[in-house]
Design a protein that fits this description.
single chain, alpha/beta, Rossmann fold, 2 domains, seven-stranded parallel beta sheet, six-stranded parallel beta sheet, 14 helices, 13 strands, globular
Length: 375
């Protein structure tokens, strides 16, 4: 079988979006472990962060903007590297290129709900994403939900979109819950955890109001807090203000991005992961929490039911009373937590990067004209 030479947008390895970095960092070694592994070349980006086994080519001259990179620099780098295919792992891709282009679109919340993205030039960003999707030879996405959303948003035939669910690192599955909790200084038990950007669509006010209600009306939870691990995309101040107005400023612990060792410990030591999001294309923290043996309480919205299945508690994203009841039940009922840990670990076992890589490789071969039907 012919070995494909695949160019990966090298800038994705240092993306400001943690989810994009986790995607490429996990997918690359999984691709290289396949029997029909491709040759992988990082096109541009910082050579210091390129994974072992992935070659690198410097960026050729191009206009000094992200658009300039995608439209000029990336195609030039692909031509210089003589790749058979370009994989753009995060939304944007060349509109024209010397080889076929596969683009990964993790979700289209910015297109389906632009009211959550009040950037001054958001229309231009959305137009660039749309053109990238329509110009690509094939699209990869993380869930059946997202595939339907992409098709609806951009008018793209469903057979040009392939679902490749994300995987979870074995490091999470190996978590030893008997180890002492190594936590950031601001975190004390018991706590609920949210992992991900603090964004309007994440609907974190519902989780906070449920925590505050539990603290007021359930005597065993006076110190319960909501720990937020992720970049503040604009809602952190309002959450802290709500907690302060309730006389419980300590009920919100905003950590910002956390080191990997703390992330593992936060998952392992949290009473539960809370995920009240209104829209997700996948929700990798759901799988990481389940693999870590952490109970999950999440919204019945977007891709979340597809990922969580029956392994956690699914709630209406606006049902504050339901969230309060679920939180109190999970925090106070060890037998319930044990059942959820077992169910979550079983569910997480289905999400492997080996499966993601196999589906991705089949898409590469189809897009490059090697006859694999990946739809």
């Amino acid at each position: 079988m012919t070995t494909l030479r695949v160019g990966i947008d090298g800038r994705s390895f240092s993306s400001a979006a943690a989810g994009v970095r986790r995607y490429v960092e996990a997918l690359m070694p999984a691709l290289l472990s396949l029997d029909d592994a491709p040759e992988l070349v990082a096109l541009g980006g910082d050579s210091r962060v390129i994974p072992h086994g992935v070659a690198h080519i410097d960026e050729p001259p191009h206009p000094p903007t992200n658009a300039g990179w995608n439209l000029v620099g990336l195609p030039r780098a692909a031509a210089r590297a003589r790749v058979d295919l370009i994989h753009a792992p995060a939304y944007t891709a060349p509109f024209w290129a010397p080889t076929p282009v596969v683009v990964t679109i993790h979700d289209v919340s910015y297109e389906r709900h632009p009211e959550w993205y009040p950037y001054r030039r958001d229309w231009l960003r959305r137009a660039f994403y749309r053109r990238s999707a329509r110009s690509a030879t094939h699209i990869l996405t993380d869930s059946v939900f997202s595939a339907g959303e992409i098709a609806a948003a951009y008018g793209i035939p469903r057979d040009r979109i392939t679902v490749a669910p994300l995987g979870v690192s074995e490091v999470f599955a190996r978590a030893d819950r008997q180890l002492p909790c190594e936590l950031p200084a601001a975190v004390t038990s018991p706590f609920l955890l949210h992992v991900g950007d603090l964004h309007e669509r994440r609907n974190l006010i519902v989780a906070l109001e449920a925590v505050l209600e539990a603290r007021r009306h359930f005597g065993s939870l006076p110190r319960l807090s909501l720990v937020l691990a992720g970049i503040d995309a604009g809602t952190g101040a309002s959450l802290r203000a709500v907690a302060a107005a309730a006389g419980a400023p300590e009920a919100v612990v905003q950590l910002g991005p956390v080191e990997e060792r703390f992330l593992h410990s936060l998952y392992r030591c949290a009473a539960a992961l809370v995920y009240p999001s209104r829209y997700e294309g996948f929700g990798l923290p759901l799988v990481e929490a389940m693999a870590s043996g952490t109970p999950v309480i999440a919204s019945r919205a977007g891709s979340i039911p597809e990922v969580l299945g029956a392994a956690g508690i699914l709630l209406d994203p606006d049902d504050t009373r339901g969230w309060t009841d679920a939180i109190m039940a999970v925090v106070n009922d060890e037998a319930l937590r044990a059942r959820m840990r077992t169910a979550g670990k079983t569910r997480a076992g289905a999400f492997t990067w080996a499966r993601t890589a196999r589906t991705t490789m089949d898409v590469y071969r189809r897009a490059a004209g090697h006859g694999i039907d990946a739809a």
